[in-house]
Amino acid sequence: MFLILKFGGTSVGSAKRIKELVNLTVNSSPKIVVLSAMSGTTNALVDICQKLNEQDATKATDLINQLKENYSHVISELFNTTEGLNKATQLLNTHFNYMLSFTLDVFTKNEEKVILAQGELLSTALFHFYLKESGISSEIIPALNFMKLNENEEPDSDYIEKYLKKELSKYPSQHLFITQGYICRNAFGEIDNLKRGGSDYSASIIGAAINSPEIQIWTDIDGMHNNDPRIVTKTYPINELSFDEAAELAYFGAKILHPTCILPAKKKNIPVRLKNTLQPEAQGTLISNFITQLGIKAVAAKDGITAINIKSDRMLLAHGFLRAVFEIFERYKTPIDMICTSEVAVSLTIDTTNYLNEIVSELNEIATVEIDQNQSIICVVGQLPKDTAGYGYLVLEALKDIPLRMVSYGGSPNNISVLVNSHLKKQALEALNSHLFHFN
Fold first, then answer.
1. CA 279 and chain centroid, separation
2. Domain boundaries in the chain?
3. How does residue 440 score in pLDDT terms, banded at 50, 70 and 90?
4. CA-closest candidate to residue 407, choices 388, 422, 392, 390
5. Per-residue pLDDT for 18 more than 70?
6. Does an H or E element contain 421, and which?
7. Using CA atoms, how far apart are residues 99 and 122, in angstroms rounded to an integer?
8. What is the rounded radius of gyration, in angstroms, for the C-alpha atoms of the chain?
9. Which of 39, 147, 251, 260 could bond to 13 as cystine, CB 3.0-4.6 Å?
10. Per-residue pLDDT tens over the stretch 361-415
């Protein structure tokens, strides 16, 4: 059975990091290695696409050449033989000349997805070349040969399982495979992707397709922490989380794990282990169906939230009012994060504002609408059964000095969420860290 090891952009972000992957991937255990693009690459490709969309061929060419120069520096440090360096140089020429060809014609949305796929194609090829130069046997199984979305833009599980196994069967004696995260084909066979952070999702989908014994997500932090270490100074990694706890934390802001990663693994009951490439000996975090002990485990925050207060024009919420409200959001494919209701109003939050003007326009036909932007959801996660007293009190007591725009408790046995103005986020996270975990 193949272990699945996914490495993020920082794990392949330099020649040194790519070389260090050998110690983590080359041993007796059969495995499939899923790679992201080198750190910074996807952002650079997004900038290139923007200039191509603006028909600024000169600036797009400059950005492409600049990115190629960065890669040229990497391969000069990565390869020790003339043969290896020549092969890598030829690879760069092929990919970057291909990107330059888009500066000569009108750029389309479909072609943007092709440009964005180049990062993963480059990182996997370079790692494969380095392994070969080092005398280590491996094979690339192209994600574009098996990773596919259906008409609803969801992974086509049956297709993926069939064609992934077909790719693996081409090399029956091989124990080390490399493939791309993030990229896929859509229902029409065009190059597409699983959206930003989708390499985690790729790893989970692949693990579920072959019933892997474990999916490992390797990043530059030693597991999922009890609070955001970028904001709060004293945090610690959590040894074990349930699938539901991890999914809540990932969705509400824990950057180490992409929110979509949990579901395929949960459905197949495959443990997900979060590990640190900089400290591989660290225990990390194990996510499984194990029911963890009662209590609060961690806190996460999600920024970029817009709160919408919808007050009924009648004294009481009329029959069908909530349905009419939700249908508006459904029409514009805008998901709702939090929701609170009162006798005459409903407050809810969204994190996608692409159609905010259209949504507000339709809501104004049935209600009075108020908008609050620059909000953050603070999510407190753990095993918090509804019949156990005290958890809500602990959270609200910790935040007694912070104005709360909304509170959501009871919808899930795994989270208590509050909404605060984003300028108060740091204060809220620090207060919770001090009060819940006794770190000042």
1. 22
2. 3-220, 297-437
3. low
4. 392
5. yes
6. strand 415-421
7. 13
8. 24
9. 39
10. 999 998 999 999 999 999 999 988 777 778 888 999 999 999 999 999 877 888 8
Taking the model in full, what pTM does it have?
A: 0.88
Q: Are 2 and 214 in contact (CB under 8 A)?
A: no
Residue labelled with tokens 């690339």: 140
Report CA torsion sign: 70, 113, 218, 29: negative
CA dist 385 and 369 (Å) reads: 34
Report the CATH fold assignment for 3-220.
Carbamate kinase (3.40.1160)
Q: Write down the CATH superfamily of domain 297-437.
A: VC0802-like (3.30.2130.10)
Tell me how far apart the alpha carbons of residues 65 and 57 are, in angstroms, rounded to a whole number. Answer: 12
Q: Which residue type sits at 225?
A: H
DSSP assignment of 167-179: HHHT-TT--EEEE
Report the SS3 class of residue 88: helix
The token pair at 142 is: 């192209």
Select from 323, 328, 324 the least CA-distant residue to 358. 328
Concatenate the DSSP letters of all residues of 209-255 into one string: HTT-S-EEEEESSSS-BSS-TTT-SS--B-SEEEHHHHHHHHHTT-T
Q: Are 42 and 67 in contact (CB under 8 A)?
A: no
Quote the tokens at residue 69: 């120069």
Residue 345 exposed, middle or buried by CB count within 10 Å (0-12, 13-18, 19+): middle
The SS3 call for residue 43 is: helix
Quick one: how many helices (H) and strands (E) in the chain?
14, 16
